Amino acid sequence: MTTTTNEQRWVAVRAGLVRGWLETKQSFREPGDVLWYFLMPAIFAVVLLFMRGNTVPGMNFELGAMVLPSIVGMSIGFGGMTGPAGTIATDREDGTLLRAKATPNGMIGYMFGKIVLFGATTLMSLALLVIPGFTVAGDLRFDARTWVLLAVIFVVGMLATVPIGIALGSLFKTAQQTGLLMLGSMVLLTVSGIFYPITALPVWLQWLGQAFPYYWLGLGARSALLPAEMAAAEIGGSWRTLEMFGVLGVWIVLGLILAPIVLRRMTRRASGAAVAAARDRVMAQGW
To answer: Which residues cross the membrane (predicted)?
Structure first.
């Protein structure tokens, strides 16, 4: 019985991966989606270009080179956390979740499909950061260790944030309400050492920032791209690589457990009539 159940779960995972790839290709054909993928990298490009020629106070190190790795970490966390949350309400209203509910382990497949979708779209946005990144590349590390570590951090970051984003998005009743999650993410970013060193914050805010993935993803990206001596600006004067993977691993386990449970509970209240009513409500609003 256990073997059969495990086989069904693996079938659901494979189906989710295929579905995620199909959704990714569809997303890349949507002009609005593609514009959004280009928008944030374009904003960061302008910021980095304005930083050219400026150095970190008290150091002969490019300010843009100091900021870019944090932007990479932030983009991984932000894309994985807020992206899925915005799609949950829509998928509930158009019946996607109801159909997933009707298939064995459908919520597991749904979750892995979203990991593929938002992993691919976040990767596209990160790739677009390469262009402005070359303007400050002189002070950054680009060796084999850098690319391997960045690849691992990206995969771990997606697994740590997408399921949590799905679980949090399930708590909102409409797509408009998910803007609260984006607002909350912006608040967390301010205490996560993304825009300025976390060591400059009060100790209690440092602990708050370290409780969430944003800090650790930013730290991991900095450890991959910055010279070893820049670790002196971090907590404990170290990149704390083991701690980084440990905390992100906890978030992965938490998300993979919680997301299917929350989705199943949410869809228990769903029905064909509820989906039709939600669709009529959206159409009445002119969407």
So the answer is: 34-51, 71-90, 111-135, 147-168, 180-205, 244-263
What residues have CB less than 8 Å from 266, skipping those under 6 apart?
92, 97, 170
The reported pTM is 0.86
Q: Domain tally for the chain?
A: 1
Domain encompassing residue 107: 2-284
Comparison of pLDDT for 92 and 22, the residue scoring more: 22
| CB neighbour list of residue 255: distance below 8 Å, 6 or more residues apart | 159, 160, 161, 162, 163, 164, 166, 167
* Interval 56-72: pLDDT, tens: 777 777 877 888 888 89
- The DSSP call for residue 232 is G
Q: What is the pLDDT, as a whole number, of residue 282?
A: 46
Question: d(Cα 260, Cα 108) in Å, to the nearest integer?
Answer: 6
Cβ atoms of 228 and 146 closer than 8 Å: no
Instruction: Please calculate the CA angle 21-24-29 and round it to the nearest 5 degrees.
Output: 135
- Report the candidate in 207, 205, 176 with the shortest Cα–Cα distance to residue 281: 176
The owner of tokens 């990149």 is 239
Round to whole Å and give the CA distance between 203 and 199: 8
For 91-115, b/e burial (b = at least 16 CB within 10 A) is bbbebbbbebbeeebbbbbbbbbbb
Average pLDDT, integer, range 248-262 = 93
What's the gap between Cα 8 and its chain centre?
Answer: 28
Return the residue matching tokens 């300025």: 196
